[in-house]
Each structure stands twice: as C-alpha cells, then as structure tokens.
Design goal:
380 residues, alpha+beta, Butyryl-Coa Dehydrogenase, subunit A, domain 1, Butyryl-CoA Dehydrogenase, subunit A, domain 2, Butyryl-CoA Dehydrogenase, subunit A, domain 3, 4-stranded antiparallel β-sheet, 10 strands, 53% helix, globular
Length: 380
C-alpha cells in the first residue's frame, strides 16, 4: 500500500469520526451562539481530544500532519452541522501563522497549548477591516522592557482566545507578537456578528511585549500572516460548502412534506428546477474548494511566501462559495416562506451563519477582483 492510499484511508476515518461527532442540531447551535463566549466549550474540548486542532501540525509538535485536505474536510462538516466553534480561526489560521514562524520557546509553547484546546487568535485587521496584513493599525515602539504596542485590531475571533498573534508595524517593517489576553493596557469590546456570534475589537494602549514574545519579523512575519489568512479563506469556503449542503437538504425535505392542492409541493416541476439550481451551486462550490485544497497541498512544503497559484485558488473557492451560499440562502427562504426566516426553525441558523461567513475574510466581489488581478485572462 502506498502513501497516497494510506492518507486516503486515514482521511476516510477522519471524515467518519467528524460525521459521528458533528451532527446537525439547531438547538445546540443556538445555545452555543448565545453562550458568553459564543462557543460550546464541551464541543471544543471534544475536538481537541479527537486531535482535529492539530491536523496541520507536524508529528514533532504533537500534530497529525494530515494537511489542508483534512482541515477543509473538518471545516466542511462543522459547517454542515451548524457548529460555530472557532476551528478555522484557531486550528487553521493561528496554527498556520505559528508554523510559518521560526522555531522558538514562545512559538512552541503556543502550539502545545493550541493542540490541547487553548484558543489562539490572529489579530491584524484595522477598524474598517482589510485582508492584507500590511493594513494593520497596530504600531510598535522600542522601549527598555521590550516593545510597546498601540492601536486597534478589529474582527478578532475567537472571543475566548487566551493569546493573540498581533501583526504590528515598526519602522516600516512588520512584526508578529504574542500578547496575552490579560496584558496590561489591553482592552477589548465584544461585537455581535450577523449570526449572533462574537468578534472582538482590541485596543492597545502601550501594551508592553517582551522581546521573547516576538514570533517573526520583516518578510517572515508578513509571509506568516498572509499564509494564515489564505488558509482561512479556503477553509471558510469549505465551511460554507457544508452549510450550503445542509440548507439544500432541509429545503428538499420541506418540499417533500409540505402539501398544497392535495399534493406535496416538491412534485411541482418548477420547484424541482429550483432545487436543481441549488444543487448545481453546491457542486460548483465543491469543485472550487477541491481545486484549492489540491493547490495548497502541492505547495505545503514550499518555503517562503505562499505561491500566487494558492492565493488565486483560495479566492476562486471563496468567491464561488460566498456567491453560492447567498443564492442558496435566498432560494431556501423563498421555498420555505416566512418560516425560513425564523430563529426557531433549523434553516434560520444556517441562513444567519451563511450571511456571516459569506462576508468573512472578503466577500465574493472582493475575491473575484483579486482572482482577476492574479490570473491572466487569455482572449480567444
């Protein structure tokens, strides 16, 4: 048996384990959303115990080294089950950023904690939001005791993070620093997202960071943050794919149960055509996500910045997933009628989650534009 067969069998086992663990449960999803930190602590602990938070980490750091295919697989199933736990933010984005930093005591300690279920969050977006790490609104200044961070980072998830990986600017170069949630001078404001979840606004008022907490500097820091962002873009697309799949299932079931004029409305051909349109959007999204995963896995061991081919593939997947999710959401609500917009009905959980994820890390219009700038179009 070759390595590819071994990996395929392992991924099949992971897929089954995730399917057994993460089952659609609207009541559970609403309870997690309404919790103080917007997270189901028991579910998060279960993910850590299963080893899913370490799928991108090498075995030397306590990981399973299953790569982006496993990460996307898990993200898709969590999206399908309506889980809002911060798998993408921590196990994908934070883990990727740390792996791209030079080895050191601070980095390795953070990765060890992440494997055990300690939440770590990447903080780089300015108050109005931006995808590029260069847009950070946090600045650093040399002081005797280390560095002093000042400025604002917004849209930071998860809200319950114990440490933040903060992108900051100092003398025209980027730094990536580890900051504890209880650091002196750091204040935070919880902000609700469209699906009722939480993100943070972090205000840095001369927050002192020891030099040992500097994880990367210059090009290495920018590459680490950019790689983390692109990995997050791809896995957010995978999470949307899961939500799309579940919305289609819920809608199909409803059409087979709801009766009008003495028969199930799913028997009306015009409604069947709309279901087919939704199914096509799901399959197109699956193809785009799969192509992006292949590109990422092919470049997994390449040193330096993430290749443009991976960035373009991530944008392709996210543009398709965001647009498809909004289309399927609109169709599902129309086919359900007013009940589709209620929080008490299962579809409502996925509608709100899809609205949030479709805009997160760049909407469809942004990613189409970025894809166009990266990929030359050949005229025929």
């Amino acid at each position: 048996m070759n390595d590819k067969q071994d990996l395929d069998e392992t991924l099949a086992l992971v897929a089954q384990a995730v399917a057994d663990f993460a089952k659609p449960d609207a009541a559970r999803a609403r309870a997690a959303r309404d919790a103080a930190d917007g997270c189901d602590a028991a579910a998060w602990e279960g993910m850590a115990e299963q080893g899913w938070l370490a799928v991108l980490l090498p075995e030397s750091l306590g990981g399973t080294a299953l790569g982006m295919r496993a990460a996307a697989l898990i993200a898709e199933r969590l999206g399908y089950a309506g889980h809002s736990e911060p798998f993408v933010a921590t196990a994908v984005m934070a883990a990727t950023a740390l792996l791209r930093c030079p080895a050191g005591p601070c980095r390795d300690t953070l990765l060890e904690g992440l494997v055990r279920g300690r939440c770590v969050a990447l903080a780089w977006q300015p108050p109005l939001g931006a995808l590029s790490p260069a847009a950070t609104a946090v600045t650093a200044r040399e002081e005797r005791s280390g560095l002093a961070l000042s400025g604002v980072a917004r849209f930071v998830v998860p809200a319950q993070a114990g440490q933040y990986l903060v992108a900051a600017r100092m003398d025209g170069r980027m730094l990536l620093c580890a900051v504890d949630a209880d650091a002196s001078g750091l204040s935070m404001v919880k902000e609700r997202t469209a699906d009722g979840g939480l993100s943070l606004r972090l205000d840095f008022d001369r927050v002192v960071v020891e030099r040992s907490a500097i994880l990367a500097q210059g090009d290495a820091a920018e590459s680490a943050v950019q790689s983390a962002i692109e990995s997050g873009v791809l896995c957010t697309a995978a999470e949307l794919l899961g939500a799309i799949t579940r919305m289609l299932e819920v809608t199909q079931t409803y059409l087979c149960e709801r009766q009008q004029f003495g028969q199930h409305i799913g028997a009306f051909q015009v409604l069947q055509h709309r279901l087919v349109d939704m199914w096509m959007q799901k399959e197109l999204t699956r193809a785009a996500v799969g192509a992006a995963v292949t590109a990422f896995d092919a470049a997994a061991d390449a040193p330096g910045p993430l290749p443009d081919a991976c960035v373009a593939a991530a944008s392709s997947a996210k543009a398709r997933a965001s647009e498809a999710a909004l289309f399927v959401t609109g169709q599902a609500v129309q086919l359900h009628g007013a009940i589709g917009t209620t929080d008490e009905y299962e579809l409502g959980v996925y509608v709100n989650r899809s609205l949030t994820l479709a805009a997160a890390l760049g909407n469809a219009a942004f990613h189409r534009s970025r894809f166009g700038a990266l990929v030359a179009v050949e005229e025929r």
